[in-house]
Design a protein that fits this description.
The complex is a heterodimer of chains A (582) and B (155). In chain A, the strands form 9 sheets. A 5-stranded mixed sheet of chain A has the order 2-1-5-3-4, with helices on both faces. In chain A, strands 12-19-13-14-15 form a 5-stranded parallel sheet. Chain A has a 3-stranded antiparallel sheet with strand order 16-17-18, with no helix packed on it. Chain A is α/β, with parallel strands linked by helices and 582 residues long. Chain A contains 15 helices and 25 strands. Classes of the chains: A alpha/beta (582), B alpha/beta (155). The complex binds flavin-adenine dinucleotide, iron/sulfur cluster (SF4) and FE2/S2 (inorganic) cluster (2 copies).
């Protein structure tokens, strides 16, 4: 340990500590520009100059990289220091006059102009190289570097092309002291539709309310998994939470019942070209609008357009992809009510005019019709007619950059409504993997992809497969109260089954009458459950009744009629056939 | 009186019987000519059932099972899919028009399809007319019919 005096204050520090760190420990602020604690100091900007007094000799050094090796005195704002710092700043002002931070520093130090010639008034890079070092030494991506020499020296990508090695981590922009490097979103839809950083973000929280609400590394984008370098996140994490060796693992559980609650997919309105979704700005799906309204969204729950301004008017279009011969014939059931909720939110959060374009208003539940009345009282314009087309409002007339076309069926007129924002209440549709899942679980899915309950009235949560229950939208569109009700019922059914601790076997299963079995073994290969085995000593086949599911395939195949399907015996079926045809 | 065919339907429990149920709960109308017997799977359908039905007075037999790949017992309907063409051949050999036997796939959600299948099949049998079987007496000493007689009876 060595003892140091900075601006008259004493401190004990370890050898090799930099003056900057020692001053920080004393709460003495030394201005810096090109210093970043994650990067080996390079001392380019020379803003951090201080005076070091050693055995009566005074030297000017850069605080960020000057290692303390013996007892010295440091002055951080003597006349001489300030004079040199000013001059260094003037040099930077000439180099990067457009950098905001330099302008601010200049204002702070009372500098109005620089004595040095300004080469490029738009320049904001001070060539500190933090970005290059970050990209090369810390991240290890080598996507940017210095190009040219002398006054033409600049930060660039190889051949000025988009570098393939860039993972869009944004570390360069993060460390750039002047804001010369910025992240912009190429698709220009970031506020509304994406909560993640970019398509290749290497570490994200999957979505705002994810449980557990923790960031996850995506190994396919993370540079550490490519080069073994970087590890920036673990360097900045104060709690050592980053484990690079954690892996996705497949665990197997023994379970007694399955409740399928896999929900739905949002219908994508892109194919409905006439609605301009994805082509014109500020046309959102219900889910996107819902996301924007969430307090945790990038807009903080504010209803804003892509330019950040509040819309003057919003149109909410019902039945997009629902009740439509070309897409889904069914009614999605929840959209009328959430559309009314959206109207209420717009009214509550903004001064925008709201147009609600409905086909039939389905306010079917407890308190729903009352809510509809409330919306009407709030002054929402409710129009009976399907929104058919959305186009840019080229004439600019009215309060909106878009024109929504519809037929107002109550007054029997075609209308064009200018609005700034459109919300498309798109259908709920079965998940794209629903049929696969149905096969896996041996349950059935209807033509629309919704899973089928065992009986439309009497078995609303069970399926045709014992021990598998349904809950929520995977069985058909429904709102949250109905989902919760069905979920509770499914849980109760599963508990009932598990609490019994025993499985009730179906009384129907196949039996082999040994005396008639010729041992031909035709049935052996037919059973999909391998319930039939062959007794080598007796030379007859046997059915394991616990494994048999009673399909009867073997019964139909047995040439000697030795196999009987209990409750579906040949005698019973012949009797039925004969009886029924009388 | 016009001819009202008698049709036997053999429906698998999981898809087709449920589909028929759905047609019922949805109040879809189809001809009352079909009377159905439930089996657990179309794989249970023994060709004997079909012959027995035709002998017992049915003019046509309709077998319905789950769509290929959807059988509750994984592959029972594939077994059925092989047995029915063989049975049709057998029927043809016996002089019975194989169109009187039909296999259709109806899933649990296809109430409307069930309706149209039954309606279509009933119409087809109606145009084929009643199935007339002659009781043949195979007394070895006094053969009841010559080959010509038998084929004449069948056509
Ligand atoms: C825009 C919009 C607004 C709405 N607003 C309202 C409202 O205000 N009030 C209301 O009552 N209802 C509203 N609803 C309806 C509501 O969203 C649904 O009722 C509810 O989400 C249904 O819940 P669920 O659990 O069935 O399905 P989901 O919420 O879809 O949940 C299913 C979950 O299962 C997961 N999953 C899927 N497959 C698998 C698998 N194979 N393995 C493991 N997990 C899987 C999914 O990732 C998902 O997390 C709205 C719907 C939309 C589209
Ligand atoms: S709930 Fe309303 S908006 Fe949604 S599909 Fe049905 S009628 Fe259309
Ligand atoms: S901060 Fe020390 S030289 Fe830039
Ligand atoms: S269960 Fe329907 S065909 Fe097998």
């Amino acid at each position: 340990m060595i003892s140091i005096e900075i601006d008259g204050k004493q401190i004990e520090v370890e050898e090799e500590t930099t003056i900057l760190n020692a001053a920080n420990a004393l709460d003495i602020k030394i201005p810096t520009l090109c210093y970043n604690e994650l990067i080996e100091p390079y001392a380019v900007c020379r803003i951090c100059v201080v005076e070091v007094i050693r055995r009566k000799r005074t030297r000017l050094v850069t605080a960020c990289n000057y290692p303390l090796r013996e007892s010295v005195k440091v002055r951080t704002n003597s006349e001489r220091v300030l004079k040199l710092r000013r001059m260094n700043l003037e040099l930077l002002m000439a180099r990067a006059p457009a950098a905001k931070i330099i302008q601010e520093m200049a204002a702070e130090m009372g500098l109005e102009t620089t004595r040095f010639p300004i080469e490029n008034p738009k320049e904001s890079c001070i060539l500190c190289g933090l970005c290059v070092q970050m990209c090369q030494d810390v991240v290890g991506a080598y996507a940017i570097g210095f190009a040219d020499r002398g006054s033409k020296r600049e930060v660039s990508t190889p051949y000025e092309r988009t570098p393939e090695t860039c993972i869009l981590c944004g570390a360069c922009a993060q460390v750039c002291p002047t804001g010369h490097i910025r992240m912009t979103d190429a698709e220009e839809r970031i506020i509304h539709s994406k909560l993640s950083l970019g398509p290749n973000a290497a570490i994200t929280i999957p979505f705002r309310q994810a449980i557990p609400n923790v960031p996850r590394i995506h190994a396919e984008h993370c540079i550490h998994f490519k080069t073994g370098e970087c590890m920036l996140c673990s360097k900045v994490c104060p709690k050592d939470c980053i484990h690079y060796d954690d892996k996705d693992e497949i665990e197997e559980f023994e379970i007694g019942a399955v409740i399928v609650a896999t929900g739905f997919d949002d219908f994508d309105p892109t194919p409905m070209k006439q609605l301009g979704y994805g082509r014109y700005p500020n046309i959102l799906t219900g889910a996107e609008f819902e996301q924007m309204n969430n307090a945790g969204s990038p807009t903080g729950g504010k209803i804003v357009m892509e330019n950040g301004e509040e819309p003057r008017s919003v149109a909410i279009l019902h039945c997009i992809g629902s009740r439509d011969e070309n897409y889904h014939k069914y009614c999605s059931r929840v959209c009328c009510m959430y559309a009314l909720k959206f109207a209420h939110l717009v009214k509550e959060k903004s001064n925008a005019e709201v147009y609600q374009l409905y086909v039939d208003m389905r306010a079917f539940g407890k308190g729903y019709e009352e809510f509809y009345q409330r919306i009407l009282d709030e002054g929402v314009n409710v129009i009976r007619g399907k929104g058919t087309e959305i186009v840019p409002n080229r004439s600019g007339a009215g309060d909106g950059a878009l024109l929504v076309r519809c037929e107002d069926t109550l007054i029997g007129k075609f209308r064009e409504i200018p609005v700034d924002m459109v919300v498309l209440c798109s259908a709920l549709e079965a998940r794209s993997d629903a049929t696969d899942l149905a096969r896996k679980l041996n349950i059935s899915a209807g033509a629309d992809g919704w899973f089928i309950e065992s009986h439309p009235k009497l078995g609303p949560v069970s399926t045709t497969t014992e021990g598998i229950y349904l809950a929520g939208v995977c069985q058909g569109p429904k709102d949250i109260p109905d989902t919760v009700a069905q979920g509770s019922a499914a849980a109760a059914q599963a508990m009932k089954m598990l609490a019994q601790g025993q499985i009730l076997m179906d009384a129907a299963y196949a039996e082999i009458a040994e005396e008639f079995c010729s041992g031909c073994r035709i049935c052996n290969g037919l059973c999909p459950y391998n319930a039939i085995s062959f007794d080598e000593t007796k030379k007859v086949s046997n059915v394991n009744s616990a494994m048999c599911k009673a399909c009867g395939t073997c019964v139909a195949a047995c040439p000697t009629g030795a196999i009987a399907a209990r409750h579906f015996t040949d005698e019973q079926i012949y009797a039925q056939i004969e009886g029924i045809l009388v | 009186m016009s001819f009202e065919p008698k049709i036997l339907g053999i429906l698998c429990n999981w898809c087709s019987y449920t589909g028929a149920d759905l047609a019922g709960t949805a109040r879809m109308k189809y001809p009352a000519n079909m009377r159905s017997v439930r089996v657990m799977c179309s794989g249970r359908v023994d060709p004997g059932f079909i012959l027995n039905a035709l002998r017992s007075g049915a003019d046509g037999v309709l077998i319905c099972g789950c769509h290929p790949g959807d059988c509750h017992y994984v592959e029972g309907n594939y077994k059925c899919m092989r047995r029915i063409p063989l049975t049709k051949k057998l029927l043809a050999d016996m002089g019975i028009d194989p169109r009187r036997l039909r296999l259709e796939w109806v899933s649990a959600s296809e109430g409307a399809r069930f309706q149209s299948v039954v309606t279509g099949f009933t119409e087809e049998i109606r145009t084929l007319g009643p199935l007339e079987l002659r009781e043949l007496n195979f007394d070895a000493e006094h053969p009841a019919g010559t080959a010509q007689e038998i084929s004449a009876a069948a056509s």
